[in-house]
Design brief:
Elements lengths: L1 H12 L3 H15 L21 H8 L1
Length: about 60
């Protein structure tokens, strides 16, 4: 936590903190490349989304 606070203080003490943050964002995006995820339901066809007849009957009871 101390390192994060020191980093924030350093950024805020710069002459132009907005430019420093843009530079940091560029470096982070180069290091951490986002790739398409195949986890969970990403990109899958969900089919029909309305309730089934049996589910509707349960709600009415």
């Amino acid at each position: 936590m101390d390192v994060l606070l020191a980093f924030i203080k350093t950024i805020l003490e710069c002459h132009n903190p907005a430019d420093k943050l843009k530079e940091l964002a560029k470096l982070v995006s180069e290091v951490f490349q986002l790739i398409p995820s195949g986890k969970h339901m990403t990109g899958r066809d969900l089919g029909r989304m309305e309730p089934t007849d049996s589910a509707e009957l349960r709600v009415k009871l």
